[in-house]
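Dear colleague,

As promised, here are the two records you asked about, laid out in our usual form so they can be pasted straight into your sheet.

NAME FIELD: protein one
SEQUENCE, THEN STRUCTURE:
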Amino acid sequence: MNIIAVAAVLSTLIAIYSGYPYIKSVLNGKTRPHQLSWLVFTIMNGMVFFAQYLAGGRVSTLVSLTFFIYSSIIFVLSFSKGTRNTSKADKSLFIFALVAMIIWALTKNNALAIWLTLLIDLAATTMTILKVRKHPDSEDPTPWFYGALAYVFACITLFHVHYGVLWVRPIYGLVCDAAIVAFIYFFRSQRAHK
């Protein structure tokens, strides 16, 4: 088995594992997923998977498919276990995400879709960070850490591909998930010092 295949398997397994503690935490009532965020994550992860696949990605898209399924499950759980508290900022970010999705639907350009998902993800991630700022214990950092690790291996699956649009999502996913982990710890430490 070559390094690309090993990285694809590890990326997918870690992505699957990253969902387990999050789903368990939601079911136990420790984590309250922000419903609007997870709606955006679900749509965005679906866009990412299909756009990457249609742009020529293969094993590197397995992590995106895994996160699409995982986001869908969290979104469904958010109806009974999540929070619907939405601020004006949340609503503005959601509208921003919808506009980006509509642009992709109208252009049907896969490369554009991948770039637009960065904007969509930025909106959903910002909603999650704003929620964590208000409620630092509402998110477990472990799943986000494993998500970042899964993206590390997704990047490895692309070592044989020239730098280009297929690299955008894994690199951004790595940065984004790592940022959420950092914000969780930052807001928890701020609260501890009050």
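NAME FIELD: protein two
SEQUENCE, THEN STRUCTURE:
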Amino acid sequence: MFIAHLGVGLAAKKVAPRASLGVLLLSAQALDVLCGLLMVTGIEHMKVTPGITRVTPLEFTSFPWSHGLLMSLVWSCLAALIAARFYHDRRTSLVVGALVFSHWILDWISHRPEMPLLFDGGPKVGLGLWNHPAASLVVELSVFAIGVLMVLWATRPRDRVGSWAFATFILFFVGLFLLNDFGPPPPVGMPQQVLGLFILIFVFLLPWGNWIEKHRMLRTVADTPKVDSGHQV
């Protein structure tokens, strides 16, 4: 459900304008980035199992450190503390922490019952939206569209780059989403380290989001009329 995660990250810009867009996007995808790193190092495990769900063939056999409910809460609190250290703003830190935890909520909706509450061997949950392709498509694209609209509502282009850079971002991730969820599956037996490296590309959300924001400005600032001292407007 990566595109829905991005939608939540985009929407947060309206709520936490002091946070950079790159930080918000990366926060929403932080648990997947952590999962990719743990897969590369062999701590967590995933494999390709055709038919495991109707949308994706990826079977998450062990990922309690990145996607367990308990550890998701831990990572969320840690992210909020880090944000508080850098932004010195309570709202921003709370939004960053909430974004990290929102990842677990959305994955709980989409995954089959494989989301651990604690660690391996404990209870696992999941509502299984991925077993309903049409509903999955509608939900994910709707959440992403809301996020896009929130960014357009909260910001405006500073220059031409601010317009086409954001448009390119939208087209790229919509295309990647359709290819990932509805395109040909990865080959059976693909090493999980390779799958983990693909997931780690989301690290680039930080510089990409910040580059987009560099060429956009908050509407609350840009649309405020300037008052010349000594004159009424």
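A couple of things worth noting about protein two: The chain is about 60% helix and 10% strand. Residues 2-218 form one domain.

Best,
R.
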